[in-house]
Amino acid sequence: MSFNPMNAVQLEEPLLRVPFETSRRTFKNAQKIMDHDFEVVSSTIGQKSKLSNANNGEEGKTRVLQEMDSLIERVQGLKRKMDVLAIEQRSNINTIGVRIGHLNEIFCGSSASKLVETNAEKSDISSKTITEGEYKDSKEVIGLSEEKNIDDEDGDNFEFGDDDLDYEDYMNTSMHLKRKKEDHEQSAKYDTFSHIRMTRLLIDHLLKTAKPLTAKALVESSNLAALVDTDILVKAHNVIAALMPPENHQPPNINALLTWCMTDAKQFLKKNRSSLEFETRLQAYIELVRQGKINEAVAYYSKWLVKWSDDGIEYYTKLKECAGLLAYSDAIVHQSRMNQGDMDIDQPEGESKDKEHLLVDIPYLELLSLERYTRLITSFLHEFYRMYGLFDTASNDDYMTSNSSPDDLTPCFQLGDSAFIKCLSTGISVLKTRSCILDNSKNEEVVYHDSMDEDDDSDFTETIESVNDEFTSHIISVPKPKSRQKRKQKLEASSLSASLLSSTFCPVCSTDLASIAKSLPFAHHVHSYVDSDSVVLPNGHIYGRGLLLKFATLMRKQAEQNAKQNRQELGMDFLGQEQELDTQKYVWDLITEEKYPESNMRVVYPS
Amino acid sequence: METILKEFEKLQENGQLSKCQGLVDDLLDTLMKSRTQIEQGDVNNIDAYLKLLKSKVDTYTKRAKLHQKEIHGPLSRFGKSLDKSFKTNFSSAYQAPTFLKSNEEALNKAISMHFVRNGNFEVAQVFMNESGGSYVSDTTIAQFEAMFVILHSLKNNNLGPAIAWASDNRDYLKHRGSDLEFNLHKCQFVRLLLDPENSPSVVLNYARTKFGVFSDIYLSEISRLMTSLLYRHELDLSPYANLRYSPSFEEICQSFTNEYCASIGFSSDSPLYLAVTAGSAALPILAKMGSIMKLKRAEWSSLNELPVEIELPKKFQFHPIFVCPVSKEQTTDLNPPRMLVCGHIISQESLNAISRNRSNSKFKCPYCPSECTALEAKRVYFE
């Protein structure tokens, strides 16, 4: 997972894709209205000019002037529309610019721009006097690298004053440090980028899960309006919300979807020969039939639906079936009234059984099912994502199967559509290890481990006996290792060793995410991640040597303080105590706080 | 990214509709002019005017097509540069089986906490109202509010509140082995030191009253600070130059945040942020993997595991992970790590295989010449 800007950008396609698609649509729109109006003007004038002499004379003049006036009016209208579109286009292109700028930020100082800069920098370094700020920065870097190399120094390097580096040494290593500093800057940039991405993902997620108020508040507080596509997501959400079956089992409202089909998406749907508009119109017709408005239904049918009959056999068949519905209108009205009381739309099976019982002879039942609305939502989302290039659906089938268990998923947008959820669940998996503690309370798993531990413990004592003397002779007290379950207890963030153990900060173990993490897969590893300076303590626990020494320093400090306090209280001799403390060095187990002489640490080779 | 940038520059230049707007203006202008001409001109010349107008309109139409082409070109080239740069198909990325709806509550809680942790208290409130649950307790919110008040004044160069908090929590910080309080005082001292308005006695007085409690642990550092007083006016040239920057402002803020969060039982980074960041770094890799798998018509054969190893940078390593070097499998409680006498560690199953399930017979370590028996191999624990 080393940082690679191009990889990081891959996820951000929608960021540029959406404003690009919008600007393309704006342009197409402008092109269409321009072509149309120019054509009208040209042909009107063309016709007039062809009729030679007919226009001459006072009568002809008035007629021509009238024509001209209407043309002028038309072009004035065109001008107004073009002004609006031009402003729209400007803002579209600006949005693209802002977003490219944002994405480009993480490229600075890396790969592409690095190539350009290196030459300039080479000459820079020799001539430039190093400013204090840089000196400080490099100190930080030194501090960092020292911490990592703790293994070959002893515990005393935590004394203060170790940053007394020679200035000349610094100058000698300035090249090296400069590079390090660049890396540092790069990672700082990536951090900023990640934080912004986090907020963007959250806003997107909030909009998709019907929390527009929070989304709005977050957009305002984070100042990221240019980086999120609030408008189109809100629009889509409204369409879907209207299609969700209301509580009272009334059919949902399709007007929002119809408007969307006729305005925003008209061109797109036409170009892609989508059946969405047809299906929507069909649904409107079906509702008219359901309500028993036969005349309106027939009128609607002939106005909006008949024209599709030439578009293919599927349309034709569907249209035939729909026309057939009219024959059963009375039964349908009767049945829908019956159902409004007690029909459970969530269980289509029960529903169809009911119908079989009530009206054996209504065919085309499938057309009447409220399930159709769920399908409308699905195909709306499909077209919506395609239109904005938001979702790369390999095939329609894939998309359908991903929604196969509607009960598990939230209404409106499917949770899986949210990039936030994708990142979150993947991220949890990436970080989820076998040592993560996902449940504080006892569950089956822990009980199971318990029984394993008993085996382990007996095994362990056995082992101790047989292990060669060299190793055991140094053990002061042979402790039974605390049971695995005890070790597994969550570390208190406030305990002394907590700040040293990275596991305290594991996000997967945190109360926030632990319950979500349970159902997600583990990370896959074929390489070990253990401290390179691993040592084992007599109780079998493995830690980094540096870590143990650091902890020992802390423990010693604390002990000294306590001892001092005691001495002051008791008025005891200062020197005698001090000497006693120094005779032997100890280390403490970070979790169990068991105490061992330093010589009892044994180097291990885990990999 | 460079191609996108290059194409965007062209788009920015040529993608606007201003030329088309100009053309419409011209057309309107011409129409109006010929209308006046017709109105004022000879009634018998109308045909001629119209013919002239017609030819003008035709040139406008041609020019319109040209302008449109000029816009369409950069627009579609920009689109192509997007296609080229974003090849990853994320639908083929490994998808966690299901993200259960039962998790929604937990997710909402995590999101609320994320807002609170980032000091977005209003947003958190709106979110909780909107999703209808009070996911974060008022106490926690108040605790974080207090933290952000202190952080805010820290950022405004006011160390007072932070120092007050640190001295209130001195015992706790001491127990944690944290240098925060001393470092805050150190910062304050350096600040006094560098301000020429302050007489040396003011600086000295500050040191006298504040550093006393720290003399047992920080004596060497305190003496350094005291001698720096001698170089007060040329600090940058003195051996104490780095006092000015250590600890740095960011370090102080970070260390304060760490300690404060720890004191109320939280880690300093939002878990949600860490997970999402890890996920967004991993998704492109998984997607690439997914498309390769699709090409080879292979299936994920993972048993509740991600299909590929995602390398973790140091920042994201929270638990030690031990993979048996023999079997290349992660050890579990069922297949625990065992240490041979020589210090090499392998998994229980590998041990069984190598020792052929005979606990007393000697075998050679797979990595070094030493020999031992399965009985001597000791169960070890990675943290």
Automatic annotation (TrEMBL), chain A:
The keyword Membrane does not apply. Residues 506-568 form the RING-Gid-type domain. GO terms for biological process: proteasome-mediated ubiquitin-dependent protein catabolic process. The keyword 4Fe-4S does not apply. Pfam families: CTLH. Residues 61-88 form a coiled coil. This is Uncharacterized protein. It comes from Nadsonia fulvescens var. elongata DSM 6958.
TrEMBL record, chain B:
One of its GO terms (molecular function) is zinc ion binding. One of its GO terms (biological process) is proteasome-mediated ubiquitin-dependent protein catabolic process. InterPro entries: CRA_dom, CTLH/CRA, CTLH_C, Fyv10_fam, LisH, Rmd5_dRing, ZF_RING_GID, Znf-RING_euk. A zinc finger (RING-Gid-type) spans 324-368. This is GID complex catalytic subunit 2. It comes from the Eukaryota. Keywords: Cytoplasm, Metal-binding, Zinc, Zinc-finger. Pfam families: CTLH, zf-RING_UBOX. Residues 143-200 form the CTLH domain. One of its GO terms (cellular component) is cytoplasm. The keyword Nucleotide-binding does not apply. Belongs to the RMD5/GID2 family. It is found in: Cytoplasm. Residues 324-368 form the RING-Gid-type domain.
